[in-house]
Specification:
Order of helices and strands: EHEHEEEEEHEHEEEEEEEHHEEEHE
Largest sheet: 6 strands, antiparallel
Number of strands: 19
Bound molecules: uridine-diphosphate-2(N-acetylglucosaminyl) butyric acid
Structural class: alpha+beta
Helix content: 25-40%
Distance between the termini: 30 Å
Length: about 290
């Protein structure tokens, strides 16, 4: 394997919000041995590494010209590796799309992840932010995570040794890491039952979230005891437009690019909403979307 290197990469092509300038390069890790080459590259060039995933939780707002986007290339399908009591254990590469993982779970008749239906992005990205919906998050189904760090190389870390929180993840005490593979445990059911539960999740999502629009998912985390969507709605931001951006008329916590939106407009709208909610309700909203 050899590290893939492409120069001058537009972030608007690689993010679901379709915004952002040109990054210095994109580095594709095709196998574990490429991490050594990646490490050498990062020492040689003055770039900031950033694992891009599918760019579905990302707002590229600042100067990204020194950014090295890292892409993990993974096999197209997960692989069953064993059993642990009732649980079927399988592995997926960090670069596999989460919807593809769910499709495999459906075909294999494995239950436990149906609530995650409709979440875009990669397996690695979903772990890195402990993505979740409808009562299930990655923390509940992940058994081990294979991470790379410049100091330790590649190693498995048990889920119990990781810190999992609401939309947060950290493998032990390591703060700078890249996820390469993830091991899951799910229980056996039937494809029909799994499909029905996935369809029910998708129906709920379609009814309440703008899943076809250009968004990066929810903009703000839900503050303790509150719903960010409800606070934004009550503060008058549902459907509020600013240039080519708006808070969705369907769900106030989704910021949409309606076609020609810029990252600057997105940031201005986010800050205006944050200020108004703080003023009216004395609640500080924290972004869930990663702003770089
Ligand atoms: N609400 C409003 N106005 C709105 C939007 C919501 O009044 O414009 C109210 C709803 O009526 C409801 C409450 O706010 O009473 C909560 O809304 P919802 O059920 O849509 O859930 P949420 O808290 O906004 C969370 C996650 C979603 C996840 C859904 C379903 C966060 C920030 N959001 O949304 O996750 O899909 O629950 O489980 O945790 C994401 O993380 O990107 C995301 C979309």
């Amino acid at each position: 394997m050899a590290l893939g290197i492409r120069r001058h990469i537009s972030l608007s092509d690689l993010t679901t919000l379709r915004m952002g300038g040109e990054a210095a390069c994109e580095l594709t890790v095709r196998g574990e041995t490429d991490f050594d080459e990646l490490s050498d590259f990062l020492m040689r060039e003055t770039v900031r590494p950033f694992v891009i995933g599918k760019g579905s939780n990302l707002l590229a707002a600042g100067d990204v010209s020194d950014l090295a986007l890292v892409r993990i290339e993974s096999p197209a399908s997960p692989e069953q590796v064993g059993r642990d009591g009732e649980a079927v254990i399988f592995r997926a590469g960090a670069g596999l799309r989460l919807p593809a993982l769910l499709g495999w779970a459906f075909k294999s008749g494995l239950t436990g992840m149906e609530g995650l239906s409709g979440i875009p992005g990669t397996v690695g990205g979903a772990v890195a932010m402990n993505a979740g919906s409808y009562g299930i998050d990655m923390a509940q189904v992940v058994r081990r995570v294979r991470v790379w760090t410049p100091t330790e190389g590649v190693e498995w870390i048990d889920s119990a040794d990781c810190s999992w929180g609401y939309r947060s993840f950290c493998p032990g005490r390591i703060s700078r890491f890249m996820i390469h593979e993830v091991e899951f445990g799910l229980t056996e059911s039937t494809p029909e039952k799994v499909k029905a539960a996935m369809n029910a999740t998708m129906d709920k999502k379609k009814a309440g979230q703008p899943i076809a629009a250009w968004t990066a998912g929810c903009v703000f985390k839900n503050p303790e005891g509150h719903s960010a969507g409800r606070l934004l709605d009550q503060a008058g931001f549902k459907g509020r437009e600013h240039g080519g951006c708006r808070f969705s008329p369907m769900h106030a916590n989704f910021l949409e690019n309606t076609g020609e939106g810029t990252a600057r407009e997105a940031v201005e709208l986010i800050e205006a909403a944050r200020e108004e909610v703080a003023k009216r309700f004395e609640v500080k909203l924290e972004t869930e979307v990663i702003i770089i």
